[in-house]
Amino acid sequence: MMNFMILSAALLAIGIYGLLSKRHLVKILISIELIAMGASMNFILLASSLNMALGEALLVLVFSTDTCLTAIVLALLVIAARKYGTCDIRKLAEIAESEQGEGENE
Amino acid sequence: MIVELIAVGLVFSACLAIYLDEAVYSIASLACTIVFLTLLYALNGAPYAAVFQLALGAGTLAIFFLAGEMLSEKPNGKKPVKNILFVSVLSLLLVLPSFFFSITVTPANFSSNITFESTLWNLRSIDVILQGLVILTLTLGIVIILHEEERGEK
Asked: Shortest CA distance to B38 belongs to which of A45, A71, A15?
């Protein structure tokens, strides 16, 4: 019998690595998805191994919320990429900083 | 044995989803991760969670494919095979502790002989509130997006 807590921790670690090291917006969102998958896997498999239906029922609600969140964030990403012409999160941060600086000067 | 193989596949595809440069390949790896996760749920006695994960995962992947196609540029060089091998070894190393180490879990002292259906029925008020919040968030998101587009056109 394998240990699912350690497996979900591995998924969490991969997601956090992606979140810290990648610059592309889609990659960052994929990393967030992996973190959410690790957390939900831990919850569901622990609940099913302890024979508790509550965990599964609550996670069904979490799945739908998570999907809505992903859809909205992706839509915002598409708008940001169209407006500024880049998907690099650091370039976007620089543009935002320069825009803020121009606003303060005016 | 099959659960262990699925676990290895799950971590390997998750590593590839982060490692690969081209967004479409990365999203294809994420699709594999979702399929492996669904199989893991189904084999470990959580069939409802497996069905929901697969259905919502399909929707998420469709959105990801569309956004990935729109936003990504083609990378210049190809990843060498040696690096892919390194990723596979790394994923194997990440999975191995879950085969050999164990964490003892003490269950709480309350009755757990409740079915999934009765739990969902008992939690229907929370369900309605949460779904309402989801719809509200979606509406707010759409309003913000439309407002931004209108401002951009001006």
From this structure: A45
A20 close contact with B: CB closer than 8 A? no
Q: Which pLDDT score, from 0 to 100, does residue A73 have?
A: 81
Q: Do B94 and A10 touch (CB under 8 A)?
A: yes
Interface test with B, best of A1, A2, A20, A89 (most B CBs within 10 A): A2
In terms of Cα–Cα distance, which of B47, B132, B30 is closest to A61?
Answer: B132
What's the pLDDT at B5? 87
CA angle A80, B137, A18 (to 5 degrees): 50
Rounded to 5°, the CA angle A13-A14-A15 comes to 90
What's the burial of B121, exposed, middle or buried (CB within 10 Å: 0-12/13-18/19+)? exposed
Measured distance CA(B68)–CA(A61) in Å, rounded: 26
ipTM, 2 decimals?
Answer: 0.85
Is B81 in a helix, a strand, or coil? helix
d(CA B103, CA A12): 17
Q: Residue B40: exposed, middle, or buried by beta-carbon count in 10 A (0-12, 13-18, 19+)?
A: buried
Cβ within 8 Å of B, A 52-81: 52-54, 56-61, 63-72, 74-79, 81
pLDDT in tens, B91-150: 888 877 777 776 666 666 555 666 777 777 777 787 788 778 878 877 887 787 778 777
Integer CA distances (angstroms), A62 to A25, A68, B61, B78, in order: 23, 10, 17, 37
Contacts of B71 (CB under 8 A, 6+ apart): A25, A26, A77, A78, A81, A87, B23
